[in-house]
């Protein structure tokens, strides 16, 4: 909202800086990083109190009841650190418009079931968490509300109906029917929500990959919101979408701060609070800047993780039906556990998946010129 | 007997701290107002 300060540049010239997307994106990154570093240790302490009462101290012996490296005792719900940092930083530095409102609405709508799920599991020791229908209801609500606003608002009503695919110079479909929009948006929000949820199994894996994806989509949102660059790169021009660069900046900063605490051995996990919502946020942003299929390339690690689970379950069921004994394609799914079972140390798996993620990010950026 | 350390009852694990403290509720309230303002400004832009 600090963008409004740019209107007073006649009073003090340097205030015009607040109209620059790049300046505000950098400031959003720094702000989210600082917020994460400030609230991180406090919230982690709070989560420990929620889970263990007296933390790690065994009351009988006074000794450490659980070692620092014991994952069973690492607090979860760390996604709340990312949520607070992203939200405050975005609200401060991004200009409110239909794109930023929808992005933050979806992010909030998916943080709620994730938080409830973690809360039930951790505090109420309910190992099942929230019921699957409740999770689906929240995801459906997020999709319907987002689509309703996008179809209703004059700035987005026509733009959102275009379907763009990589490698094509023009829109594949220039006016999608509402039902197709609903199906696609639902698939992207729910699909990436669950894909990041599955990826979040090793210290820093989902967070690191989210940073590379947010970086690429920050660049793409900047181009999509700029009439000159989008025309030069033959991309869809989406007026106002440049503000999503600021949201991506906030997301990068928040994830960097979270990664500080989530790096191996993790002091905190993001839990469903983080993973479900991050997937939804990335999915809806990719959709709004007309790059949904580019997300499949850029978020390749998330796609591979989800595919590994689908293939593992599918192959097991199919072989069981045909031979009576279920066979497995991987030693364990999601695929990061397959490599762990093969003897790779956790940090090696994470670093190699980050390298993969960087490769996918570069491949996604390359699609900008291949049209 | 009760003097015997082995007979001492094990301490009961303390209940988890409540999350919905007044501070948390105020923070949620402030966040809700900020979000509402953001939505109103955004949808009227």
Count the helices of chain B. How many? 1
Oligomer, anyone?
Answer: heterodimer
Uncertain segments of chain A are 52-69
How far apart are the termini of chain A?
Answer: 36 Å
Explain this structure.
The complex is a heterodimer of chains A (371) and B (45). Chain A has 371 residues and is mainly alpha-helical. In chain A, 64% of the residues lie in helices and 0% in strands. The longest helix of chain A is centred in the first third of the chain and has 32 residues, at 21-52. The relative contact order of chain A is 0.15. The model of chain A is unreliable at 52-69 (pLDDT under 50). Chain B is rod-shaped and about 40 Å long. Chains A and B meet through helix 1 and helix 3 of A and helix 1 of B.
Topology:
The complex is a heterodimer of chains A (371) and B (45).
Chain A: H1 21-52, H2 79-93, H3 98-122, H4 132-152, H5 178-199, H6 205-224, H7 227-232, H8 243-262, H9 271-288, H10 292-298, H11 300-323, H12 335-341, H13 346-366
Helix pairs in contact in A: 1-2, 1-8, 2-3, 2-8, 2-9, 3-4, 3-9, 4-5, 5-9, 5-11, 6-8, 6-9, 6-13, 9-10, 10-11, 10-13
Chain B: H1 22-43
Would you summarize the structure shown here?
The complex is a heterodimer of chains A (371) and B (45). Chain A has helices at 21-52, 79-93, 98-122, 132-152, 178-199, 205-224, 227-232, 243-262, 271-288, 292-298, 300-323, 335-341, 346-366. In chain A, 64% of the residues lie in helices and 0% in strands.
Q: Any descriptors?
A:
heterodimer; A: 371 residues; mainly alpha; 13 helices; 64% helix; B: 45 residues; 1 helix
């Amino acid at each position: 909202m600090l963008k409004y300060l740019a209107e007073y540049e006649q009073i003090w010239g340097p205030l015009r800086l607040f109209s620059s997307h790049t300046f505000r994106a950098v400031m959003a990154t720094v702000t989210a990083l600082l917020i994460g570093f400030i609230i991180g240790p406090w919230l982690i302490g709070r989560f420990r109190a929620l889970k263990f009462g007296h933390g790690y101290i065994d009351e009988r012996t006074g000794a450490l009841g659980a070692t620092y490296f014991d994952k069973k005792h690492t607090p979860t719900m760390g996604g709340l650190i990312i949520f607070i940092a992203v939200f405050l930083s975005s609200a401060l530095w991004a200009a409110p418009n239909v794109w930023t409102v929808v992005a933050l609405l979806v992010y909030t709508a998916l943080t709620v079931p994730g938080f409830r799920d973690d809360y039930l599991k951790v505090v109420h020791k309910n190992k099942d968490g929230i019921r699957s229908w409740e999770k689906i209801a929240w995801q459906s609500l997020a999709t319907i509300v987002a689509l309703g606003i996008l179809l209703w608002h004059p700035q987005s009503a026509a733009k959102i109906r275009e379907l763009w695919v990589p490698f094509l110079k023009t829109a594949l479909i220039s006016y999608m029917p509402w039902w197709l929009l609903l199906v696609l948006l639902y698939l992207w929000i729910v699909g990436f929500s669950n894909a990041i949820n599955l990826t979040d199994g090793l210290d820093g894996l989902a967070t690191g990959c989210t940073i590379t994806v947010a970086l690429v989509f920050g660049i793409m949102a900047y181009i999509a919101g700029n009439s000159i660059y989008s025309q030069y790169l033959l991309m869809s021009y989406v007026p106002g979408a440049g503000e999503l660069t600021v949201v991506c900046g906030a997301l990068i900063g928040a994830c960097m701060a979270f990664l500080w605490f989530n790096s191996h051995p993790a002091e905190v996990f993001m839990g469903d609070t983080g993973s479900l919502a991050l997937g939804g946020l990335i999915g809806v942003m990719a959709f709004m800047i007309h790059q949904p299929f580019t997300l499949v390339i850029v978020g390749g690690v998330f796609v591979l993780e989800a595919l590994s689970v689908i293939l593992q379950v599918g192959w097991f069921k199919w072989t069981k039906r045909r031979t009576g004994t279920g066979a497995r394609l991987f030693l364990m799914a999601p695929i990061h556990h397959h490599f762990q079972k093969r003897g790779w140390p956790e940090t090696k798996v994470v670093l190699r998946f980050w390298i993969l993620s960087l490769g996918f990010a570069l491949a996604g950026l390359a699609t900008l010129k291949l049209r | 007997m009760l003097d015997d350390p082995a007979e001492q009852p094990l301490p009961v694990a303390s209940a988890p701290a409540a999350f919905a403290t007044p501070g948390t509720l105020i923070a949620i309230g402030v966040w809700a107002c900020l979000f509402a303002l953001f939505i109103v400004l955004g949808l009227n832009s």
